[in-house]
Amino acid sequence: MPGPLDGKRILILATNGFEQSELEVPRDRLKEAGAQVHVVSPERGEIKGWDKKDWGRPVPVDKTLAEVRETEYDAIVLPGGQINPDLLRVDPAAIGLIKSFYDAGKTVAAICHAPWLLVEAGLVKGKRMTSYKSIRTDVENAGARWEDASVVTDNGVITSRNPGDLEDFSKKIIEEVREGKHERRAA
Question: Which is nearest to 18 in space by CA: 118, 151, 110?
């Protein structure tokens, strides 16, 4: 039986220090829905997760950031954790890739601390969003209207608060990717 995302390609952008469940749960749910999912990182080999209070399991990197283009994918997923988005938000190639997905009207999904990446990319002004509670002020100061909800979607930009929201987050990604491109003005 065909899955709702058969033929779709999803990029998960992460580096060392990603919140373990925030990469693995969406990856697994998207694959179960039929999508081809690639974990992309600035470095080759493996990246190591953060699992609650200590280092977690490594995850293989499918492609490096330098090897991918937005045109090859239908959506980008940004797992949180404190370390991962803090490292990626100072990487011009990572920010440029996120902007390219947004500018192309494709689904952009960020959970926990990953909305920092959307702030850095200049994509939050005027948007309804959520995030981990400790970065609420950062998100609001960048111009977003912050909401305390498990998942908030604004024109194909999906945000969630924490690992407790992962099932809602994953379902919303599937729904938005099936919906297709979103009309929005460039960042």
Answer: 110
- Residues 6 or more apart in contact with residue 47 via CB below 8 angstroms: 14, 15, 16, 18, 39, 41, 58, 59, 61
Look up residue 152 and give its amino acid: V
Report how far apart, in Å, the C-alpha atoms of 38 and of each of 21, 90, 182 are: 16, 22, 22
Confidence check: pLDDT of 182 > 90: no
Dihedral over alpha carbons 96, 102, 108, 113 (to 10 degrees):
50
Strand partners, 36: 9
- What integer is the mean pLDDT of 145-157? 97
Closest CA relative to residue 166, chosen from 106, 75, 79: 79
C-alpha to C-alpha distance for 37 and 29, rounded to whole angstroms: 10
**Tokens linked to 114:** 């990953």
Phi and psi at residue 44, to the nearest 5°: -80, 170
- Higher pLDDT: 184 or 128? It is 128
Residues annotated as catalytic (active site), given as ranges: 113
Q: Given a cut of 80, is residue 183 above it in pLDDT?
A: no
What is the value of pTM for the model shown? 0.96
- Residue-level pLDDT at 127: 97
What is the rounded CA–CA span in Å between residue 113 and residue 18?
10
